[in-house]
Amino acid sequence: xxxxxxxxxxxxxxxxxxxxxxxxxxxxxxxxxxxxxxxxxxxxxxxxxxxxxxxxxxxxxxxxxxxxxxxxxxxxxxxxxxxxxxxxxxxxxxxxxxxxxxxxxxxxxxxxxxxxxxxxxxxxxxxxxxxxxxxxxxxxxxxxxxxxxxxx
Length: 152
Fold this sequence. Notes:
Layout lengths: L4 E6 L3 H4 E11 L3 H8 L3 E2 L4 E5 L2 E5 L2 E2 L16 E4 L2 H11 L4 E11 L2 E11 L2 H24 L1
Antiparallel strand pairs: 1-8, 2-7, 2-9, 3-6, 4-5, 5-7, 8-9
């Protein structure tokens, strides 16, 4: 039985700037006005990152817009949000982050059965020449596919 998933936000820049090594799904501890903004799709993950502090995983710098109807009872759009992960997963992320060049980034936020979930990834940053090579490789694959379609 497949549960319905509604994708709220994606970090499209992540696949360009990073090599994705491992993906995980994490729950989010949100306030009431935050979940309403998430359901409205007012989320930006572009500058977000995950850091493990004191045995807890935290989402930093992800922007969840202010929920207008809540007026003065609103949340801070850039506040740090706790990720809900198993202890083993948190330890694994902490160990991986201590290695040089590895980071944890958010890939997409979605709603599954009314609950906000975040797909995070252990990633290695790409250098500029790696980004150019990846672009060239994708362009070459696209050209080959076009040529193949024309031959048929």
